[in-house]
Amino acid sequence: MSEKPAEQRSETVLDELAAVIADRQEELPEDSYTASLFTHEKGENAVLEKIGEESTEVVLAAKDDDDALVAESADLVYHLLVLLAMKDISLDELRAELRERR
Ligand SMILES: N=c1c2ncn([C@@H]3O[C@H](COP(=O)(O)OP(=O)(O)OP(=O)(O)O)[C@@H](O)[C@H]3O)c2ncn1[C@@H]1O[C@H](COP(=O)(O)O)[C@@H](O)[C@H]1O
């Protein structure tokens, strides 16, 4: 059985996204939405509020729109990765937690 190409493996895209988020956190480019979350006047509450909003959007989409559910889930995962970066928690720590539950 052949392995999926790298760009189709979910762990790879999550690692790549986490790496981009880490770059934005370090470099804080002015035109970056991600950077704006790290520098927001509300502090971490900005991303916490987004996680609350995106969670609600996931729940609503789950009721009747699978395409929207995928899109809203991606928004939620992205904002969760930003929060983990803010807290200096790596994707490996999340993976370890999930593995422990198997
Ligand atoms: N995955 C994402 C991603 N998902 C969602 N979002 C942003 O999250 C926001 C979601 O907010 P909403 O759904 O409420 O939509 P909105 O009304 O436009 O947002 P607000 O005005 O309420 O902030 C939008 O601005 C989206 O653009 C993301 N922004 C960035 N990324 C990734 O981060 C990388 C770096 O992006 P920049 O930081 O913009 O360079 C990108 O290449 C992407 O891979």
TrEMBL record:
GO cellular component: cytoplasm
Stored Pfam families: PRA-PH
Known EC number: 3.6.1.31
Alphabetical list of CDD domains matching this protein: NTP-PPase_HisIE_like
Biological process according to GO: L-histidine biosynthetic process
A GO MF term: ATP binding
Localization in the cell: Cytoplasm
Catalytic activity, reaction form: 1-(5-phospho-beta-D-ribosyl)-ATP + H2O = 1-(5-phospho-beta-D-ribosyl)-5'-AMP + diphosphate + H(+)
Segments crossing the lipid bilayer: none
Top EC category: hydrolase
Domain of life: Archaea
Keywords from the named record: Amino-acid biosynthesis, ATP-binding, Cytoplasm, Histidine biosynthesis, Hydrolase, Nucleotide-binding
Record InterPro entries: HisE (IPR008179), PRib-ATP_PPHydrolase-like (IPR021130)
Principal subcellular localisation of the protein: cytoplasm
Pathway: Amino-acid biosynthesis; L-histidine biosynthesis; L-histidine from 5-phospho-alpha-D-ribose 1-diphosphate: step 2/9
Family named by the database record: Belongs to the PRA-PH family.
Protein name: Phosphoribosyl-ATP pyrophosphatase
Species name: Halococcus thailandensis JCM 13552
